[in-house]
Design a protein that fits this description.
The chain is α+β, with helices and mostly antiparallel strands and 867 residues long. It is built from 21 helices and 45 strands. Strands 1, 2, 5, 6, 7, 8 and 21 form a seven-stranded mixed beta sheet that branches. α2 packs parallel to α3, α5 packs parallel to α6 and α15 crosses α20.
């Protein structure tokens, strides 16, 4: 009964009260831009420290980006109503002058409304600029947000500090807020947060808030200072304004229903409470001191260090080219902040430009203030109201106490158990108080408790900014070859291969897919076929050490490969498993044309770059992706040579001059070509590489010649059948990331005398050389009309029991027009030793008997490849 009442009555009411809304169903109507930028100095934060740093670096000639999340730059100076002066000017006037000087410098970019949200490796930072949210009627062509991806030589972190709440009973009641927030509302925006305020303070800056609100028309009922001895200047200013100050005083509890209506004070003496008077109010301002914003510094992998003097964690040893300045470094006095900012900017410019920067001495007059504050919870003996530590996740002191009782000692564990400092807060307001309370609960010091990890982003970033234009039709870009329009006009059926659209088959009138593929395969075997192979990945490997580089990457030997010759290459990962293959041609002594699988192009290039930069930096090699530059037209079949002969210039096509696995450079149809004599069908074959912008014209000429001989165009399905008839593997189909060269019969490709290559060591691991590994075989069904399903399991028994371990699985399966029967390739345990055995493929309608045969079904001696 109680469960029913909860689920049917109370839970819906509570969920509705929680304000959970419905997610939008329509697509985001806005668009988001992305841009890349380089600079000498990036300054994060445009408060007094950031302004000084940007001015020093900018006037030294450095390229500077100054970013600040606010619409106006100036930070604390925007709401500074004290009598502070800088170089004889009011703080606000000094700010305006500096911003004008910066705006006049062509080498300085000012980015207001821009949050530096992430500090990544090698001084790479992410920024999000709000471009349109502040506009009532933004231009439709204007992005809502812009993601800046900035690489900076040096970074100055001037992110300031965040006022710390006080932890006392009833501190989450509406009307309780941070003192400096109320001050900013009053001085910058002309808004009073309340008419009668109680200020509870542990730092002098709360007195500035009290004075500002009094000047704006509010009544300050009392300043309850937790400390026994406030700063003399702050205390004197409050008394001069007629504000009652009670020292060694805290709040025992708050009162009110919809918002605060009063507080009960308590005197603090030697850690014990003495309940005092109740004071009516509609606003409670609290200030526990200031927490330096070390988030960006921590994200840069710099190590923070505990400062007993500042009562906070401050930046320690750096890991990247950055420097913190101002309040984020624990420096709060205005004169010191400006000096520190200038020095950081000057030093950054000096290092970035390689020349000394100037200096500047600031003349600052400002009332003295104490900023130390306090940490942890205030004395709460006898209090019954909860005291909140994390206001975002409703974590109280009792939750932290329970975490200690449950045995959680690591602050990271406490964080996850209680959720304090998680999600968007990332410890901005709650962390130090939570650590101090945890330290008290566990009998440790705050440094022993430690600090939680600060992760990107510093503040939430929209998915729109991160995605940019990569959504909708642009989320997964469609790539089309130069021959696509021709294939489309021929009525080709297309399939997606990676990001490419590829012609799957070319049906003629009345043909279904099976009939079209059978016709294409038969035509290639008997006459010839033309195939668009432009999607093959192509990488130009150039340099005096190009052969040595390939020697280390691929299993094959390359140093003795003659210019004008090709070799089938196999690429492994460190575990010894095949991840790609392709034909590699030596164009010149120091130039190799490397082909990869269609889907592996980017992966292989990335892997090569990784090894070249991290493992083999001594090699003089340059890698260039040329996938888009070369279109490839494959002409395969007995008539292939006759088809291309009238079109080729400067290349002797005779078998003696141009043998199998050779390449020549010349012209075809007047266009420069790299002509490869290679075959993925087992027939005489040529692959014509021509510049992509000339490909359609060459294709049309080749097609015109092909039709004279009765050749056809064929698609990827026929290509699969033709290669399977020859036992050629496809990476990703015969391999699954756990297959070695020996498993698929490619041991012959491994250089016998090679000292090393990627994955070589792993090929000798016990599991790799152990008997019982699955090896590539061919399968012939006893009923030749039955075509197996790819992925089907293979067993010894025709009626295996549940739990029987399969011996292998079918990797490829087709109907073979050349044989007039079905064929299949499979990986079977000890397959090469089982030739001639009969195994079974269990299916719902009964097991299918198969005979293990050689994976080469057509032309086992390879005679057809020479035409």
């Amino acid at each position: 009964g109680s469960n029913w009442a909860w689920s049917k009555i109370y839970e819906p009411i509570i969920r509705q009260a929680a304000g959970l809304g419905r997610p939008p169903e329509d697509p985001d109507p806005d668009f988001y831009a992305q841009t890349f930028e380089h600079c000498d100095v990036l300054v994060a934060g445009a408060g007094p420290a950031g302004l000084a740093a940007a001015l020093a670096a900018g006037e030294a000639g450095a390229r500077v980006i100054l970013a600040d999340e606010q619409a106006e730059m100036g930070g604390s100076l925007l709401s500074d109503e004290t009598s502070a002066t800088i170089d004889g000017k009011a703080a606000s006037a000094w700010r305006d002058e500096v911003l004008a000087r910066l705006a006049a410098l062509p080498n300085v970019r000012l980015l207001p409304r821009t949050q530096v949200f992430g500090y990544f490796a090698q001084n790479f930072l992410g920024l999000v600029e709000q471009c349109a949210d502040h506009l009532a009627h933004p231009d439709a062509a204007r992005p809502r947000e812009r993601l800046w991806q900035v690489r900076a030589k040096r970074v100055v972190i001037a992110t300031g500090a965040i006022e710390r709440p006080l932890v006392f009973p009833g501190n989450d009641r509406p009307g309780v807020m941070l003192a400096d927030a109320a001050r900013v509302f009053a001085t910058r925006y002309g808004a009073l947060a309340g008419r009668r305020a109680v200020v509870v303070a542990a730092t002098d800056t709360a007195y500035d808030a009290a004075l500002a609100l009094k000047d704006a028309g509010a009544r300050i009922a009392v300043i309850a200072d937790v400390r026994a001895a406030p700063g003399e200047a702050a205390l004197a200013a409050a008394k001069a304004a007629g504000i009652d100050v009670k020292t060694s005083t805290t709040i025992f509890e708050t009162k009110g229903r919809l918002r605060v209506s009063g507080v009960t004070l308590a005197s603090v003496r030697d850690g014990s409470l003495s309940k005092g008077e109740t004071i009516a109010c509609d606003l409670v301002l609290m200030s526990g001191g200031w927490t330096p914003s070390v988030h960006l510094f921590s994200q840069s992998r710099g190590k923070v260090a505990w400062s007993a003097e500042a009562n906070a964690f401050l930046p320690g040893p750096s890991a990247q080219a950055e420097r913190s300045a101002g309040a984020c470094r624990g420096t709060f006095a205005l004169g010191d902040v400006l000096t520190e900012g200038w020095q950081a900017g000057a030093e950054a410019a000096s290092i970035a430009l390689g020349k000394p920067a100037g200096s500047h001495a600031f003349a600052v007059e400002a009332p003295p203030r104490s900023y130390a504050g306090m940490l942890g919870a205030m004395p709460m003996t006898g209090a019954t109201q909860p005291a909140f530590v994390d206001f975002q996740h409703d974590v109280t002191t009792k939750d932290l106490k329970l975490a200690a009782q449950e045995g959680f000692r690591s602050i990271e564990h406490v964080k996850r158990y209680t959720t304090t400092g998680m999600a968007t807060d990332q410890g901005k307001t709650s962390n130090l108080n939570a650590m101090a309370i945890t330290a008290a609960n566990t009998g440790k010091t705050i440094p022993e408790v430690g600090l939680t990890t600060f992760r990107q982003p510093y503040t939430p970033v929209t998915f729109g900014s991160l995605a940019g234009h990569n959504r909708g039709d642009l989320f997964d870009p469609v790539r089309r070859t130069p021959i696509h329009a021709w294939a489309e006009a021929q009525g080709a059926a297309f399939e997606d291969v990676g990001l490419w659209k590829r012609a799957h088959y070319f049906p003629r009138s009345g043909e279904n897919a099976h009939e079209a593929v059978a016709r294409e395969c038969a035509t290639v075997r008997s006459t010839a076929g033309v195939f668009d192979a432009s999607t093959l990945g192509k990488i130009e490997v150039v340099g005096p050490d190009a052969a040595e580089f390939l020697e280390r990457m691929y299993v094959n030997p390359w140093k003795k490969l003659e210019v004008g010759r090709c070799r089938y290459g196999v690429l492994l990962n460190e575990a010894g498993f095949i991840i790609d293959d392709g034909v590699v041609g030596r164009v010149a002594t120091d130039v190799f044309h490397v082909t990869t699988t269609t889907g592996g192009a980017q992966r292989v290039l990335t892997m090569m770059e990784d090894y070249l930069q991290t493992e083999f930096p001594d090699l003089k090699v340059w890698l260039t992706s040329t996938t888009e530059q070369w279109a490839v037209i494959a002409v395969q079949g007995p008539k292939a040579r006759e088809i291309i002969a009238p079109l080729v210039e400067g290349i002797d096509l005779s078998p003696a001059a141009f043998p199998h696995m050779a390449l020549r450079e010349g012209k075809i149809c007047g266009v420069d070509t790299r002509l490869f004599r290679v075959s993925f069908t087992g027939e005489l074959g040529f692959e014509i590489n021509v510049p992509a912008n000339a490909a359609r014209g060459v294709w049309d000429r080749v097609w015109a010649e092909a039709t004279k001989h009765g050749a056809c165009a064929y698609g990827t399905e026929s290509m699969h059948v033709l290669r399977a008839e020859k036992g050629f593997i496809i990476v990703g189909q015969e391999t699954d990331g756990t297959v070695t060269p020996d498993d698929v019969g490619l041991t012959w490709a491994i250089g016998k005398n090679k000292r090393d290559f990627v994955g070589k060591r792993s090929l000798t691991r016990p599991d790799i050389v152990a008997p019982g590994r699955r090896q590539l075989v061919g399968l012939k069904t006893q009923n030749p009309k039955v075509t197996l399903e790819e992925g089907a399991q293979i067993t010894a028994s025709s009626a295996p029991k549940a739990g029987t371990q399969a011996l292998g699985h079918v990797t490829s399966s087709y109907w073979s027009p050349a044989l007039g029967s079905s064929i299949a390739l499979a990986l079977v345990a000890d397959g090469r030793k089982r030739m001639g055995e009969t195994l079974h493929v269990p299916m719902p309608d009964g097991a299918i008997a198969v005979e293990l045969v050689s994976p080469v079904f057509v032309d086992p001696k390879g005679e057809k490849i020479n035409g």
